[in-house]
User: Which sequence fits this backbone?
């Protein structure tokens, strides 16, 4: 514990507070709040009731007003801490509210209601997790079906992306052919074309190929990514050519060179691309929305859209399901990040 | 069993001609060493033989079979790269096995060959390590091991010792010589290092600017360099060159005027030179001695004296300003600024014409 404290209070130069110490702290804490604040709020709020969500000012943790059942009333009544006219405080339940005055009754001794100005009372609140936000969609919403579709799309698209992009990158980094730079340039040039520009032609192609309303129609147009090719090519350029020459002397076929030499050595860049690809495909909304029109084919992101109706947005479900959809991405990151270590490619050389 | 023959081989990268008209015949079981200054095309020539590049001109034969267009994998050669090029993600054992697996050898035989190579190179204890966990010398042995297990018809080694420290180099050199003796396989070895070349080679190939300058046994190159370049390149410290002029026939050849101050007998075919022809005389520092009383020698000014005990290295300047290095036996009491006269013996003089070629009969 003392070591943690000495670590946390370490300062530049050791003695006194230098202004850079303060800037550092402010910067780091500010960064922490900006980066983690929304995520924490999201997780906290996913357990709130619709009423809790509408509350102002918003809270991080889900609080709910305590309620009691009182004889003579059908609905449970909310509890309030009330300052009475004689200055004493009491816990009373609200039976009715008219304007600025609420009719309060004692839950233990329901008698004549006492009128109380609403400014003289505050709700009794307790931490309460609205698990229904999570369980409800599992029952009424085809969560598992959507989850399966999302996983299928993400996994397939990522595998194909890695294979296709690494092959292209291998050719573009390790073979010399005329037009190599032109091809690379063309691939990079497609980075400048946003999806919305090619949406209509892409739709025509996909539908002409009979991939409309098919998960493959979501997967295939996304697998060739210029970013991925560029990322992998730059990494492969750092793999010494002599390794490939050595493999050639060792009677390796071009396929074996790719599969047994290049791919293992590109693992760090592949891990990065895999993370990107998983995040991209998992969070894709527009393209799946266009290609998939049958409900049983929806991916999670499209499926979640049913909670955002025209008149009524069911935020509590959206938030809860957003938390659920975030989990796989986080797990993938945690799993893959240990492959992101650099500098092993040169280890076999002098 | 392999004889490697190159006929009229040339290689260009775009407009740059890196190798021109290489004719070379490496005999079976021979240890051939390529030497030459950096960038002269040694590695390129080795890669052509290996099949990693194709020549723009000429052809390459192994045991009389034309392999000019045969891919590297099918030539049956093994190469040790300048940078070792071990596969960093595989263990030493996998590195050794990779080439054998690719030729679909049975597991048991792979195992046997690896054990044998590991024993020979003493890398047994490291078989499960990655190359990154080995020292330079160990990596080097693994690289050689990777070549040995393949049982190649010839080894191609590109400066395999260049990154080792001096001591390790000496011991690895001895190991390589022993290995060649035992395997009796053709070896082609590229090096910068004169001592490696002189001690290991059956024949040395001296390259300059993509051309072969001379091919010959180490002592042949030392004693009878075919031209000024080879004379200056082989032997350490480098040979001294003095400008001279042919005077008149006589003695066992002709007499030459050195620096306009001294008359020296040169052993060469006097009929092949004309009077007043400018020539260059070369003499190795070890062959210089102090001139005897009344002997016609070259007078030089001492700049620096390095007393090594058994010998004294004297850095001097000749009358025309050229540096002359002399390695004199024993200890000499010289100081900077002294003027001394150095004697030249005709049997140690190398004479070259204006184009740098050795004179006939020299
Ligand atoms: N792929 C290439 N493209 C263009 N020029 C090249 C290429 N490879 C080699 N060269 C040139 O060919 C010449 C010979 O190179 P090479 O590697 O054979 O030299 P080397 O004799 O092995 O030198 P070192 O002793 O420094 O290893 C150099 O001038 C080099 O610049
Ligand atoms: Mg080289």
Assistant:
């Amino acid at each position: 514990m003392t070591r943690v404290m000495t670590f946390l209070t370490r300062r530049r130069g050791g003695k006194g507070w230098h202004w850079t110490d303060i800037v550092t702290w402010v910067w780091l804490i500010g960064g922490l709040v900006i980066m983690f604040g929304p995520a924490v709020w999201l997780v906290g709020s996913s357990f709130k009731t619709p009423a809790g969500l509408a509350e102002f000012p918003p809270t991080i943790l889900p609080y709910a007003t305590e309620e009691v059942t009182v004889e003579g009333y059908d609905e449970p009544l909310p509890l309030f801490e009330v300052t009475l006219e004689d200055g004493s405080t009491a816990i009373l339940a609200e039976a009715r509210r008219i304007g600025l005055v609420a009719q309060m009754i004692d839950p233990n001794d329901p008698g004549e209601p006492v009128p109380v100005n609403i400014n003289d009372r505050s709700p009794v609140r307790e931490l309460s997790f609205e698990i229904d936000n999570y369980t409800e969609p599992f029952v009424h919403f085809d969560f598992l079906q959507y989850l399966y579709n999302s996983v299928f799309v993400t996994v397939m698209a990522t595998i194909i992306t890695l294979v296709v992009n690494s092959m292209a990158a291998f050719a573009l980094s390790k073979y010399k052919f005329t037009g190599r730079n032109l091809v690379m340039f063309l691939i990079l040039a497609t980075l400048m074309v946003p999806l919305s520009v090619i949406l209509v032609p892409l739709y025509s192609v996909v539908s002409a190929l009979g991939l409309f309303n098919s998960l493959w129609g979501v997967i295939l147009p996304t697998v060739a990514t210029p970013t991925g090719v560029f990322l992998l090519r730059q990494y492969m350029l750092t793999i010494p050519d002599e390794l490939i020459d050595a493999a050639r002397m060792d009677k390796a076929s071009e396929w074996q060179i790719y599969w047994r030499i290049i791919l293992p050595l590109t693992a760090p860049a592949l891990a990065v691309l895999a993370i990107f690809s998983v995040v991209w495909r998992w969070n894709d909304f527009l393209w799946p929305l266009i290609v998939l029109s049958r409900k049983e084919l929806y991916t999670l992101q499209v499926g979640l859209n049913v909670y955002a109706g025209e008149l009524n947005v069911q935020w509590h479900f959206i938030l809860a399901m957003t938390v659920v959809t975030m989990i796989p991405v986080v797990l993938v990151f945690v799993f893959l990040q240990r492959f992101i270590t650099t500098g092993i490619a040169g280890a076999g050389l002098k | 069993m392999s004889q490697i023959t190159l006929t009229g081989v040339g290689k260009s990268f775009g407009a740059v001609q890196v190798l021109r008209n290489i004719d070379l015949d490496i005999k079976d079981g021979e240890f051939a060493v390529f030497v030459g200054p950096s960038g002269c095309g040694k590695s390129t020539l080795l890669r052509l033989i290996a099949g990693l590049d194709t020549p723009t001109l000429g052809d390459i034969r192994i045991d009389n079979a034309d392999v000019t267009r045969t891919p590297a994998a099918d030539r049956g050669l093994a190469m040790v790269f300048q940078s070792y090029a071990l596969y960093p993600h595989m263990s030493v054992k996998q590195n050794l096995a990779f080439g054998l697996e690719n030729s679909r050898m049975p597991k048991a035989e792979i195992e046997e060959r690896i054990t044998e190579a590991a024993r020979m190179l003493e890398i047994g204890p490291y078989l499960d390590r990655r190359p990154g966990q080995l020292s330079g010398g160990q990596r080097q042995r693994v690289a050689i091991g990777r070549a040995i297990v393949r049982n190649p018809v010839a080894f191609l080694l590109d400066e395999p010792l260049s990154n080792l420290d001096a001591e390790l180099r000496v011991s690895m050199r001895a190991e390589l010589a022993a290995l060649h003796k035992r395997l009796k396989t053709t070896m082609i070895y590229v090096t910068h290092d004169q001592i490696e070349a002189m001690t290991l080679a059956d024949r040395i190939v001296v390259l300059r600017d993509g051309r072969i300058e001379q091919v010959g046994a180490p002592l042949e190159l030392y004693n009878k360099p075919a031209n000024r370049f080879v004379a200056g390149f082989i032997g350490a410290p480098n040979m001294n060159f003095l400008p001279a002029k042919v005077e008149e026939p006589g003695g066992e050849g002709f007499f030459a005027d050195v620096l306009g101050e001294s008359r020296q007998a040169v052993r060469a075919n006097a009929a092949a030179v004309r009077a007043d022809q400018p020539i260059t005389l070369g003499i190795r520092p070890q062959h210089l001695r102090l001139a005897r009383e009344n002997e016609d020698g070259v007078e030089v000014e001492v700049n620096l004296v390095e007393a090594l005990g058994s010998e004294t290295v004297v850095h001097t300047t000749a009358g025309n300003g050229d540096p002359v290095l002399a390695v004199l036996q024993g200890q000499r009491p010289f100081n900077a600024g002294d003027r001394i006269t150095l004697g030249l013996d005709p049997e140690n003089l190398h004479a070259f014409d204006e184009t740098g070629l050795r004179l006939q009969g020299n």
About this structure: The longest strand of chain A covers residues 89-98. The mean pLDDT of chain A is 86.
